[in-house]
Structure formats: structure tokens, C-alpha cells
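EI: anyone free to look at a 144-residue chain?
SC: sure, send it
EI:
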Amino acid sequence: MLSYIKLKQRAFTLIELLLVIVVIGIITGIAIPNFVKAREHAFENEARASLRLIIAAQRSRRMETNNYYTSIAGATAECPAGGHICNINAQLRLLLPDTATRNWNYITTVGGASPTCAAATRNVPGGIIWRMRINFDPVVGNCP
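SC: here you go
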């Protein structure tokens, strides 16, 4: 009988267990959206940093060859499989991620109102597009 009383005093009730589960659910419900926002913010920082690298490489190319590079998707000697990012890496001497798991697609254009523009498009449905012109900070939207 004594052991039964000690066991009963140490056990959790069903209400206490349900309360713990509800509290964990509330904390999870708050934490997951914040995690998703932080992750997307990190992806956006990645795009802006890569756009700055592309623009800096474009400036270097302009000083060396007196022209900017416009990315092409087709096959070249450096990139037999083709693709914008492979050609950007080869022509501008960069190391942007060129795998199936990359987060962004990059493209460069020349002409129009700005001398050159680089754009990063997020690889998710309805993904955001960041663009950067040669003398400006990154902004949301397509290249002009």
C-alpha cells in the first residue's frame, strides 16, 4: 500500500500532460513563422551579395575589355551544357552556385537607360526578383 501511495504522488495527470503539449504547440506556432522569415531574409542577403559581386566583376571586365558582358543561356566553349550562371561564372570569373539546389537564377543585361543590370530571381513559385544597376543599390523588380 505504501508503494502505491508513493507511485501516485510521482505520476503526472492527464491534464498536466495536455497542458504541456498545448504550450509546446503554441511555442512552435510562434517559432516556425519567425524561422521562415529569417531564412528568406538570409536568402535575400545572398542575392544582394551575389549581385554586388556581379556588378564589381562587370566593372573589372569593362576596364579590361572596354565592354560589359551580357549573359547568354546557350552553350559556349567554357560551358558546353549552357546556362546563364555557368556563362556568367566563366566570363566574369566568379563562383556563383551552379547546381540544381541553388536558391537564385542570375542574369545580366546591357543597354537601355543603364549601362548594365544584373538580376536575381528566386527559385520558388512567385519568387522575388532583385536587380542591381551598375551604380545603384539592389532593388526589387526586373531590369529595365
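EI: The chain has a mean pLDDT of 83.
SC: 👍
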